[in-house]
Structure formats: C-alpha cells, structure tokens
Amino acid sequence: MVKQVVTTCFVLFHCIISYWAFMSSCSIQSSTKIIIPAIARYFGTRSRYEDVNTYLIDDILAINNSLVTLPSSKCSEIHMTVIIRHGTRYPTTKNIKKMRKFYDLVVRDAAVNWNYLSEIKSQWKMWYTDDMDGRLVDKGREDHRHLAQRLIKWFPSLLTQENVRQRRVKLITSSKHRCVNSTIAFRKGLMEGLNIEDELEISVNDTLMRYFEQCKRFVKEVENNDTALEELQRFNDGPEMKRIVEKMADRLEVPYTNITDESVEAGFFLCAYEFAIQNLNSPWCQLYDEVDAQVLEYAGDLKQYWKRSYGYEINSKSSCILFHDLFHRLDQVVAQINSDDIVSEAVTVQVGHGETLLPLVTLLDLFKDDTHLSSTNFATQHNRIFKSGKIVPYAANLLVVLYKCPEGIRMGVRMNEKSLTLPGLTDPVPMYEDVKKRYRALLEGCDQETVCKINNS
Ligand SMILES: *[C@@H]1O[C@H](CO)[C@@H](O)[C@H](O)[C@H]1NC(C)=O
Ligand SMILES: *[C@@H]1O[C@H](CO)[C@@H](O)[C@H](O)[C@H]1NC(C)=O
Ligand SMILES: *[C@@H]1O[C@H](CO)[C@@H](O)[C@H](O)[C@H]1NC(C)=O
Ligand SMILES: *[C@@H]1O[C@H](CO)[C@@H](O)[C@H](O)[C@H]1NC(C)=O
Ligand SMILES: *[C@@H]1O[C@H](CO)[C@@H](O)[C@H](O)[C@H]1NC(C)=O
Q: Where are the transmembrane segments (predicted)?
C-alpha cells in the first residue's frame, strides 16, 4: 500500500514539474497509453505482433516503408503468397490447468508481503476455463482483420475488388477453429478494406497447413519421442531454472519443494496471456525480473528449436509439401506472365500455426545461429538470432512477392512485414531464377513421401 502511494505521488509530482515541457506526452502516458510489461519482449510464441513491430502500437493500420526493400520502380507486383499464423488465442487446456494450479498455490500458501501478491490473492480471479482450449480471442480476430487491411495498403494492385470478384484471391486454412476463425476475420478485413460484399470461399487443407502431424517420421522421432527434447529437460533441471524456482519460493515464502519449473512457467504464461488477451500489465508480471524472463524465454526457444526447427533435420523437412506448394504456384505465375496470360492466382493467403511457419523458415535457412541452442549455452546465446518471439508472435507472417521487371521476374521475401535477404543471396530482391538456383537441392528433392517415411535403420 505504502509503495503504491509513494509511486502515485511520484508520478503526480513528475507530471506537475514536467507539465509545461511535456504536457501532451505526460497526459497521454497517464490516461490512454497501455502499460507494456517490462518483460513483454520475452514472451516468445505468446508475443503480441505489435511488440515486434512497435510502430503499430500507435497506428495498427500503419505500414512502415523503411522496413522493406523494393525493386526498381519499373517493376510491378504480379503475385503475393502470405503464410500466416493464427491470431491471439486462449491458452490450451493443458496450460490452463497448470496456471490454475499455480494460482491455487499462491492463494492458499503465499505470504502477502508485496502489493502484487495481495492483489493476486484478493482481486485477481482465475477466469480461464478448460473449455477455452486454444480458441481465438477477440484480439486474435483483430490481428487478422488489421493485417488484411495493411496488406491492402502494401499491395494495392494485387488486393483489388476485381481480383476478389474474379476469384484470383485464394484463402486456405488449417482446420483448427482458431485458424478458421482467423481466416474469417482476415476475409472480413479484406471485404471492409476493399468495400465489397462478395464473400470469398475458404478452403481447409490440413495436408498443407498441418503437415507436421501427417509426417510419420517426424511424429515418431520427435513429436512422440520423450528424449527428443532432452536439451529442454536438462535446462529445466539446470542451474538457471533452479535459481528462478528458489527466488519464486522466497518471494512467496513457501518451501522450495513446493515450486517447480512448471509453476514458474505457469505464472509467466499468466503474465503473457493477461497482456496479450486483455491488454493488462497484471500482478503476475511482478513475480518476474528481467533475468527470470530471459531464462523462461530461453526454455521456450529451446522447445521450438528442437521440436520445430534446426534441432532435427526432419523438423524442417516435414514442410517439404508446403515448400513445393509455394514454388509450384510461383512457377505457374511466371509461366502465365511469360505467355502473356492473366495471372490466375494474384494473392494466396494460407493460415496455419507457429508449427506451420517455423519448419518452413528453417527449411529456407532463415534465423539460423552458428551453434545449436542447448541446455548449457543460455549465457552465450543472449544475442542469438533464433528468438521465437521475433519470428512467430501471434499473426506472424511469411510473405513472398513476385515482381515483373524489364530484366525478368524478381522475388521479395518479408517476415512480419520486414524485408529479408535470403541467406546465400546478396540481392534483397533477387531474380526469381537465382532464388531457384539457391534452393535447387530442395526443389529437386525434398519429397514429402520420401522424407516422412519411417526407415528401419
Ligand atoms: C519504421 O520502423 C523504424 C525501425 O523500426 C522506426 O525507427 C520508425 O520510426 C518507423 N517509422 C514509422 C513511421 O513509424
Ligand atoms: C507444500 O506442499 C505440500 C504438498 O502438496 C503441502 O502439504 C504443504 O501444505 C505445502 N506447504 C506450503 C507452505 O505451501
Ligand atoms: C470459431 O469457429 C468455430 C467453427 O470453426 C465456431 O464454432 C465458433 O463459434 C467460432 N468462434 C469462436 C469464438 O471460437
Ligand atoms: C528419439 O530421439 C533421440 C534423440 O534424438 C534419438 O536418438 C532416438 O533415436 C529417437 N527415438 C526414436 C524412436 O526415433
Ligand atoms: C491440399 O494441398 C495440396 C498441396 O498443394 C494439394 O495437393 C491437395 O490437393 C490439397 N487438398 C485439398 C483438399 O484441397
């Protein structure tokens, strides 16, 4: 209580003395601005999209041209494929149960030495119920509606009324309700942005968008394999995690044995979900300092790394079908352009999961560090490229655009609305033929059936 009063007084005082100099910024900060938890940048796959692209916090429909590289003005856009993760969602039932367990422990056993603990115990309600199980929330619908409207701004010559009416815009989704509902919201954003009523059909394709559960070898060797995530288990049993567990037990004044890595993870998830879903900087966030958050982020990244990314070759190879689907479509567009035909698929939107995107960006060699993420290199991997919060926040998207230029067809790639140069190439908007040369081994191989077959060796 005392602490709160002191803080309020300080803020008031600060506002008064700064009044003349900072009138507008001060009043904005104290009234309308949402307070972002200090540890929000460590939320990993539970990150808000606008915390990756912070200019969106002020204007969710803004596009930031300084983040993209365009080819010469003599080029024109002829096609765009975008593969998008679903929007913000509720926790899964499994995580809701862990969160409830930790909440119950805090309410039952924790001391009330801190404001935030008394707030959790007396005011905060455990409002997550098991049936919410990973469903899309309202914020998740907005994520997709707004993304659609920004894409109209990015590609005004591709996302047109005419292309929608002529069915040159295709919507494909995973069958999961959060993806279907994201796609419906994306379509709504398109219809509003283009001012048309026409409803595009949505086709469900799990072979394409949930390829990971159909790849037998991946399921056997990684998904259902208890030792595949060994590095994560070792890290969770290791010194960094042990330290957080002890700090947490000290804060709550409960025996060390009553707190586990699962409990500290659950509280961290509560902080992340309260923020992503409700825009709240909840008292749960006060239970973690920056180092705690970095450690928990690393645990999350280890899981993604070994289960979906560079940890095992089969992780990325399981996305061969999506890779070929993309290049097959791009080839078709190029063939249509070369024979002066109308491009039949101007825009293709594919909605799936973080698990859909990560293996594909891995297959393309993106976000690759020199060393594996392991249970022992937390300290040396601070500046790693592989941070799942930057790669797959909610509504994360990998976008490929083809341009027709006087010298031929060029291709641009953007991750979360930022251009990136494909590793091994120097031109940020290379000739399409050079991209195909770069990925020749995959284009000529990477056969889904072969890579996913379980071999007995
Ligand atoms: C665009 O992004 C850059 C880099 O993140 C940032 O510095 C700049 O302020 C942004 N521009 C706008 C108009 O928001
Ligand atoms: C610790 O956990 C045990 C077993 O669940 C329980 O009986 C005990 O009351 C807990 N102690 C505290 C102080 O939370
Ligand atoms: C989402 O989509 C499902 C069907 O896929 C539907 O039953 C549900 O009402 C929708 N809304 C929410 C909030 O999940
Ligand atoms: C499980 O993963 C470990 C570690 O990669 C590997 O050695 C083992 O062969 C895998 N087991 C199966 C059944 O694939
Ligand atoms: C799903 O996508 C794959 C790959 O592009 C395609 O071969 C298959 O026909 C599609 N299935 C459906 C039901 O559209």
A: 5-23
E strands, 263-415, in order: 347-352, 397-405, 408-415
Element (H, E) at 4: helix 2-31
The reported pLDDT for the residue numbered 443 is 98
Residues 191 and 161 sit within 8 Å (Cβ to Cβ): no
Q: What is the pTM of this model?
A: 0.91
- Smallest CA-to-CA distance from 313 within 191, 408, 446 is with 446
Q: What is the mean pLDDT of residues 187-204?
A: 95
User: Which-ligand-closest: CA of 138?
Assistant: 3
Looking at the domain assignment, is residue 19 inside a domain? no
Quick one: pLDDT at residue 29? 40
Is 279 a domain residue?
Answer: yes
Domain range for 414 is 54-90+138-214+313-451
pLDDT higher than 60, residue 24: no
Strands (E), 325-371: 347-352
Q: Are residues 160 and 189 in the same domain?
A: yes
Position in ligand 2 atom list of the atom nearest CA 108: 14
> Is residue 187 domain-shared with residue 295, that is, in the same domain?
no
Number of domains in the chain: 2
State whether 292 and 420 are in the same domain: no
Q: Which ligand is nearest to the CA of 211?
A: 5
Residue with tokens 């249509």: 336
Q: What is the CATH number of the domain that holds 354?
A: 3.40.50.1240
Say which range, 9-18, 270-279, 397-406, has the weakest mean pLDDT. Answer: 9-18
Average pLDDT for 103-130: 92
Does 146 qualify as catalytic in the annotation?
Answer: no
| Pocket flag, ligand 5, residue 208 (CB < 6 Å) | yes
